[in-house]
Design goal:
Elements: E1 2-7, H1 15-30, E2 33-37, H2 41-45, E3 49-52, H3 81-91, E4 96-101, H4 103-114, E5 119-123, H5 139-160, E6 163-168, H6 175-184, E7 188-190, H7 198-210, E8 216-221, E9 239-244, E10 250-252, H8 255-267, E11 271-275, H9 287-306, E12 311-316, E13 319-324, H10 325-330, H11 337-346
Helix pairs in contact: 1-9, 5-6, 6-11, 7-8
The chain binds 6-O-phosphono-beta-D-fructofuranose.
Length: 359
């Protein structure tokens, strides 16, 4: 078969491992040929491609980023965009397309599938917020990066008697914040799923210091929201500017600085912010992500040969299975109560708890 491939949305450690696994299994076991479309859906819109063979995937397993590059291009927002993509696939005589991306990229894959394209999806995002799969690759690497950063921030916070706020990625879901916060021993973890009351956060830290601790670590997801008096459940996330990308997302960021200012203003402890940003997405994937990405790639090329189109490779209880793309994009997978209970169990208070717990 002639198989096309693209990577869309924010990059993620492990993308190259997926590409490599698909090309290797496709070449060794199915005698497939591959075409890589460049820069996400832009490659199909503008017919930008590169040949993908065993030599082009040599040595890419440990490399971050994606040799196919990526973009947040949305063909559904361009005049005849989806038809242009289909025309490019025809021009290259592509039998099946593998789209590697998050909910935005996979929503376009679903639209193309509805127009008759034979497409298989692979879930990718450091945010780990895709429905239908237990873990996305890239998440483990991001959590390791953030945990190491929290460990480093811990020692300087302790040395200076400071509160340190660590802002991490996580637009709609706080998986990175809660996993790295638990792994790094954070004192407060704030996630998009639970709008928080700044008074309670400040009071929690004040009580902690009152019982003899002289530094604190706060981990906040970029999409976390202040609750408001008007509507305590639904604050708005802090955005860097009002401009939106082609999938309608604003650029988040800035909550860490605001939080630090408000904590210091309320309780008087010197407070500093660290914004980890794209450091979380760059660099070499962890061993776990290399293995997971490889398994997703193998799963996807097998799905192509079984004719399971309009589906996504998913991890369910340590097995790679095939699920409808429509299920994966239907909603975000947000942090579950079990993980919230883990965090609440070892911390003074997680936002949403009734009152700070005195130890
Ligand atoms: O891929 C998801 C994500 O990591 C979000 O957590 C974050 O808001 C966004 O990417 C940032 O994307 P960009 O690199 O386009 O600024």
């Amino acid at each position: 078969m002639k198989v096309g491939m693209l990577t869309g949305g924010g990059d993620c450690p492990g993308l190259n491992a997926v590409i490599r696994a698909i090309v290797r299994k496709g070449s060794f076991h199915y005698e497939d040929e591959f075409v890589g479309f460049l820069e996400g859906w832009r490659g199909l819109l503008e017919n930008k491609s590169m040949p993908l063979d065993l030599s082009s995937v040599g040595g890419i397993l440990p490399r971050g980023g994606t040799i196919l590059r990526t973009s947040r291009t949305n063909p559904a927002k361009k005049a005849d965009g989806l038809d242009k993509c289909i025309a490019t696939l025809k021009k290259h005589s592509i039998d099946a397309l593998i789209a590697i991306g998050g909910d935005d990229t996979l929503s376009v894959a679903q639209k193309l599938h509805e127009k008759g394209v034979k497409v298989v999806g692979i879930p990718k995002t450091i945010d780990n917020d895709l429905a239908g799969t237990d873990y996305t690759f890239g998440f483990d690497t991001a959590v390791n990066v953030v945990t190491e950063a929290i460990d480093r921030v811990h020692t300087t916070a302790e040395a200076h008697n400071r509160v340190m706020v660590v802002e991490v990625m996580g637009r709609d879901a706080g998986w990175i914040a809660i996993h790295s916060g638990v792994a790094g021993g954070a004192d407060v973890i704030l996630i998009p799923e639970r709008p928080f009351d700044i008074e309670k956060v400040a009071e929690t830290i004040r009580l902690r210091h009152a019982r003899g601790r002289y530094f604190s670590i706060v981990v906040v997801a970029e999409g976390a929201k202040f609750s408001t008096d008007m509507d305590p459940q639904h604050g708005a996330p802090i955005v860097q500017d009002m401009e939106k990308d082609e999938f309608g997302h604003a650029r988040l960021g800035g909550i860490g600085n605001i939080l630090a200012r408000e904590i210091e203003r309320r309780i008087g402890f010197e407070t500093r912010t660290v914004v980890l940003g794209h450091i979380q997405r760059g660099g070499s994937p962890s061993a776990f992500d290399r293995v997971l990405a490889t398994r997703y790639g193998l799963g996807a090329i097998d799905m192509v040969h079984r004719g399971e189109f309009g589906c996504m490779a998913a991890l369910r209880g340590n097995k790679i299975v095939s699920i409808p793309l429509a299920d994966a994009i239907a909603k975000n997978r947000t942090v579950d109560q079990e993980m919230i209970d883990v965090a609440s169990g070892i911390m003074d208070k997680l936002t949403g708890d009734e009152e700070p717990v005195e130890k």
